[in-house]
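Let's inspect a concrete specimen:
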Amino acid sequence: MDLDEAFRTVGEFGLYQKQALAIVVLAQVYMASQSMLIVLVGFTPHYHVEQQQQVPSGAQGLVQKVVFTEDVDSIVTEWFLIKQQAYKVSLAGSLFFAGLLVGNVVLGPLSDKVGRRPVYLSGLFLEVVFGYVTALAPSYEVFAVSRLLVGLMNGGIGVVSFVLSQEYVGKSYWAMTGTLTSLGFAVGIALFAALGYMIPPWRNLAMAANSFGLLSFLLSVTLPESPRWLYCQGQMERAEQVLHHMALRNGNAVTNLMLQRDAAATKVSKPKRGQPGLLQLALHPVLRIRTVVLMYVWYSCSLVYYGLTLGAGDSTGSRYVNVAMYGLVEVPAYPLCMYFINKHWAGRRKSMSGFLCLSGSACFCTVLIPANGGSVLSVTLLALVGKLMVSAAFNIAYIYTSELYPTVIRNAGLGVCSMSCRVGGIIAPFVPSMRAVHSSVPFTVFCLSGLSAGCLGLLLPETLDAAAAETLDQLTSPTRSRVLQSKVRLVQV
């Protein structure tokens, strides 16, 4: 039997898969706390500088004393990261996202070669270790380096954990498990805000947040290797053992489970002509065009999402409430996209493109509102609607991308798309400064990005109810003749 039939036999989403998914979602909660850590531990309270007269060695002089007017314990108050040193707070955040970018590109493809489980466990273990280094850092320099290393591990296991959440279950549940992992990340942001409110000292907060990772690692040791990865690597016996274990834990009596010995699955697990797996994204005729489209979609999602986040909310008020809202505002997007992507008249492709276009349209509507018309609330509301729409599109992009890439190269594809996503996140903070040209320029940029990505996404093939591709050869199968594939084959002929 093939893998899809095997999952139907052992249970596509039984008790064992639910327990495994809960462990993966807990890892998402931990990764969310690490992503948002700098927002609370790098908080800069109000302060003023006092001039004090001092007589050192018999000579009069003036000494400046920094006085913080708020009772806040952060890296700013401990290492006096103010004035000329204030850039170091942003630098620590930038180093984390730089680590994310590298981790997406390096660890994602690595898991396609050596396996999901070893990369996931080693990456999670190292992230916990570096997280404790962050909490115990004796100096800013150690703190900054630890944030880079935490980001490196975070970016890698973020991709791998998402793939595991899908490869542990039957394909009909991929949309749900992918959405639950994204939802876990959003809830993790809100939980981190609550944790920060209860534990204000920054070192104690970093230690407490890292406890999620330690618990997640201890539970993750029980996770098996992905049966889909084992199958596409030709390790049929190990894949059958994992599936038998799943069936046993699900309460299904399976006595004769034997996977189809597909020669293509064993041959294509190694890239053709000895090429590294990552190069297949550029050299394979179908994957090349598909990857370019997906990279732009991910880039636009990130640009619009983070750009609207910076401009939609008021920075005043409780920082804990602001961080919590940053996560909770995404929650309604997930049931919304879950409803549409499983409908035959919408599917993955139309839903993702539609949400992107709606996000761009909401940004366009803000341009039509007069600047001095007393409609600030309307602008804010439209910006939040735009963020809601792009959050739904972002979630669909994760699910859709994992379905568009074969198992043998899925992590490599997700890693490259995540890299373009990080580039969009890096550029996003600079877009609001375009108000110096005209007040409507930032929203115009978001509008054009959303609309163009939505239209370009329509070139991708639909994956709803389609069999999951395991190998590269299956991309050119006649049964998969859809938009991009058919065009490429015509060129080759």
About this structure: Residues 58-62, 263-276, 477-483, 486-493 have pLDDT under 50 and may be disordered. The CA atoms of residues 338 and 405 lie 20 Å apart.
